[in-house]
Design brief:
- By secondary structure, this protein is an alpha+beta fold.
- Helices cover about 40% and strands about 15% of the residues.
- The protein has a single domain, classed as Cathepsin B, Chain A (Alpha-Beta Complex).
- It is built from six helices and four strands.
- It has a four-stranded antiparallel beta sheet with strand order 1-2-3-4.
- α2 packs across α4.
- About 25% of the residues are buried.
- Keywords: Hydrolase, Nucleus, Protease, Thiol protease, Transcription, Transcription regulation, Ubl conjugation pathway.
- Its EC number is 3.4.19.12.
């Protein structure tokens, strides 16, 4: 089996590590993800302004912190989705009714981006084996098919 890239957690930048572990290289930096988050914030601000810049909703919106990133280094699923678009990849939410209708067995997929208690991590298949590439672990963790189904 080839070497499996595993980026270890630094700070609270789990989305960065999740993406880099998914793509198997150091492709995203905190600065690039923050840029995507700011772009999303600006798009949201422009949409909210369509209702009138003097509206109560718009003024309240401007007072709220970004939902796309925070000071701890946490990035939203929207940032992750937009980052993956640069690679021509699309995130399909596992709980999406459209995905559920397809009746796809998750064991036949190649990878998953997971979130548990505000922590992003990647589960990815290499060959016939699944690995947990959680950046909080010391290294890649082999997942049995039975354990995979529990994820």
């Amino acid at each position: 089996m080839d070497f499996i890239f595993h980026e270890k957690q630094e700070g609270f930048l789990c989305a960065q590590h999740c993406l880099n572990n998914l793509l198997q290289g150091e492709y995203f930096s905190p600065v690039e993800l923050a840029s995507i988050a700011h772009q999303l914030d600006e798009e949201e601000r422009m949409r909210m302004a369509e209702g009138g810049v003097t509206s109560e909703d718009y003024r309240a919106f401007l007072q709220q912190p970004s939902e796309n990133m925070d000071d701890s280094g946490f990035f939203s699923i929207q940032v992750i989705c937009n980052a993956l678009k640069f690679w021509g990849l699309e995130v399909i939410h596992f709980n999406n009714p459209e995905y559920q209708k397809l009746g796809i067995d998750p064991i036949n997929e190649r990878s998953f981006i997971c979130n548990y208690k505000q922590h992003w991590f990647t589960i990815r298949k290499f060959g016939k084996h699944w690995f947990n590439l959680n950046s909080l672990l010391a290294g890649p963790e082999l997942i049995s098919d039975i354990s995979f189904k529990m994820f």
